[in-house]
From TrEMBL:
The keyword Repeat does not apply. Gene3D superfamilies: 3.40.50.20, ATP-grasp fold, A domain, ATP-grasp fold, B domain, Phosphoribosylglycinamide synthetase, C-terminal domain. Belongs to the GARS family. Residues 107-313 form the ATP-grasp domain. It catalyses: 5-phospho-beta-D-ribosylamine + glycine + ATP = N(1)-(5-phospho-beta-D-ribosyl)glycinamide + ADP + phosphate + H(+). One of its GO terms (molecular function) is metal ion binding. Its cofactor is Mg(2+); Mn(2+). This is Phosphoribosylamine--glycine ligase. It is an enzyme of class 6 (ligase). The gene is purD.
Amino acid sequence: MKVLIVGSGGREHAIAWKVAQSPKVDKIYCAPGNAGIAEYAECVPISAMEFDKLAAFAKEHEVDLTVIGMDDPLVGGIVDVFEAQGLRVFGPRKNAAILEGSKAFSKDLMKKYNIPTAAYETFTDPHKALEYLQTAKMPIVLKADGLALGKGVLICNTLEEAEAGVKEIMEDKKFGSAGNQMVIEEFMTGREVSVLSFVDGDTIRIMTSSQDHKRALDGDQGLNTGGMGTFSPSPFYTKEVDEFCKKYIYQPSVDAMKKEGRTFKGIIFFGLMLTEDGPKVLEYNARFGDPETQVVLPRMKNDIVEVFEACIDGTLDQIELEFEDNAAVCVVLASDGYPVKYEKGFKIHGLEKFKDADGYYVFHAGTKFDEDGDIVTNGGRVLGVTAKGKDLKEARANAYKATEWIDFANKYMRHDIGHAIDEA
């Protein structure tokens, strides 16, 4: 088979690495890819939003399967474009990707089908939102309706912060058109857990649990980012939580989308909050998480290409997912100043140390080759250093040890990824 992967981050590197292990595959392309993905795939200079060019490339090169990694092309309808040309593609169609593309849609869906989530109100008028805040309980959560690179959620502790947040999202348009509509919801307390799943329209298969660290600084301080590190599995995701979610959240979400005429095939990523009142949905995503994928796929035993094909063909009920009985931790190495302002173009040293290190991986998020053929930094999040261990503590120790193998100017990371493990 020939496989095309669409995207350029650490998630797509992890997908390419996993696809390369499939005996079914002998050629991988990635558009646009990065310097790390180039180890497994031929990188193609087409952006993820150039749907017609990507489809033409897939036809011309007789690609058997295209895998969409990113949210923007999915919400934009890339799957519909590929399907219209008779191309096999993994990911939800545009009318199903709205599950991530509009927070207002997903909240309304959960309300209609009694899927547990936080109480909320939706606003298109900033003045009405400000009026509502006068009587709302603090802290409170503001969410830009559309896609905002994982950064369009503000947790406001005071009325003043919330009012400033409304201005930022709806009037200053900090997140562009994503802030034309806004969801204001109650602040939930508890443990956050990320659960990825494969879906074929009817059947859902749950992957292992993980937990992300969104804030830029140690102690969950600083600005929201795309994610500074992850661990898997979550010690807080118990058998009881799993059984509850399967009954009241996972399958009901798949069934709800089908009833709405929006049959979902691809990945549903459930962002959960384990509250005192039981698990509730924080948000849905319509694709693999980043950097959750970097700890989930190294633990997955299945041939991922077989799973992708089962989702497309509606035969996922014939597959049981298997995961190693161990743990994995990913620490993101970022450019100092991320997520606001940072420099790029610094040479990265030490990548070769991962070549023969069993159970250690380095997934490239923001890298490229310079004119001399050296790998240099090319983004805010540069690398995801992942390591496995017999348990979470060992995996964390291994991951932090491996971060020392890498060096580049302006290297920055959090030092407390997996701190919740100590409290488990």
